[in-house]
Amino acid sequence: MIDKIKELIAEADAFKAETKEEVEAFRIQYLGKKGLLNQYFAEFKNVANEQKKEFGQAVNALKKAAEEKVNALKEELESKEEVKGVYGDLSRPGEPVNLGARHPISIVKNQIIDIFSNIGFNVSEGPEIEDDWHNFTALNLPEYHPARDMQDTFFIQTNPDVLLRTHTSSVQVRYMEKNQPPIRTISPGRVYRNEAISARSHCFFHQIEGLYIDKEVSFADLKQTLQYFTTQLFGKSKIRLRPSYFPFTEPSAEIDVYWGLETESDYRITKGTGWLEIGGCGMVDPNVLENCNIDSKEYSGFAFGVGIDRIAMLLHQINDIRLLSENDVRFLEQFKSAL
Ligand code: DAH
Q1: Cα-to-centroid distance, 123 and ligand 1 (Å)
Q2: Residue numbers belonging to the annotated binding site for Mg(2+)
Q3: Which stretch of DSSP H or E encloses residue 244?
Q4: For the chain, which end, N or C, has fewer CB atoms within 10 Å of the first or last residue's CB respectively?
Q5: Within its chain, how far is the Cα of 51 from the centroid?
Q6: pLDDT exceeds cutoff 70 at 339
Q7: Whether 174 and 251 share a structural domain
Q8: Which GO BP terms apply (predicted)?
Q9: pLDDT band (50, 70, 90) for residue 89
Q10: Protein residues with CB under 6 Å of any ligand 1 atom
Q11: Which band of pLDDT confidence, cut at 50, 70 and 90, is reported for residue 335?
């Protein structure tokens, strides 16, 4: 009987299977309730005492061989199935690829970049974590200048020299420090202000800064450039430059676009005036040029800054600025066609 068991062990070791069913049949034959092993275990009591030890060892070896075989075959078949799952039927038509949508801020930012690159502006960027010099001092806003309060600043912990930039005008400074005129650059980016969050304002938003420095640049050049920009972006070319104050420009102005009052929503957008403010601008203050090692006697230039979020909200009828940073797919998916 022991020889028979040894034969069965050899058979189990040599057993091969192609399907799960074959493995299961093998398992039942050896390890099932009425299987070979249980038959041998039942036989145990009839075995002569002096053979019990050898018999027991042989039956245990058979059990081990059968169990190991079942496990090994199962694993082998499963991994074959996995491979099949990965590659599938290679002749099947492809799965549709679900394309994402660009974020409305990116869409509008890219539109603005396109408009300005058509008239020779390049794109420059600067860090969101800034130092006092680039965000304030070089822009003609020395310490204790009251205009610093125009923008509530987030400082990084205890160091008053490290802050989250409050505007992209800081990139003007960085660009002028590294490049000599002629300069034509726009600088898109995220900015931060310590403001209460509501449907109309957020503690972070996006701006595009523009800078043009060359010989004999005039206010007329500024106006013409802005007019071109608003016509391209909104299809509305009537603009108004309303006198204002910024420490880094002199003279300074607020940029208004004539939006019109044709519909109910025009009334809301322009608060009944027909005019919509989109940003600030002016002739770069000679102090700023000098701070950046540009000779203010030889060169002059203009700068402007516009808010991207506001423009995106206008162009895509978004009524709450918070939607732009909440990452709700139901909102984002609506921009699939607007690439
Ligand atoms: N930095 C200003 C702000 O964030 C916007 C601005 C105004 C930028 C006038 C300019 C400028 O370049 O000339 O409110």
Answers
A1: 17
A2: 250
A3: strand 239-246
A4: C
A5: 75
A6: no
A7: yes
A8: phenylalanyl-tRNA aminoacylation
A9: confident
A10: 167, 169, 209, 246, 249, 280-282, 303-305
A11: very high
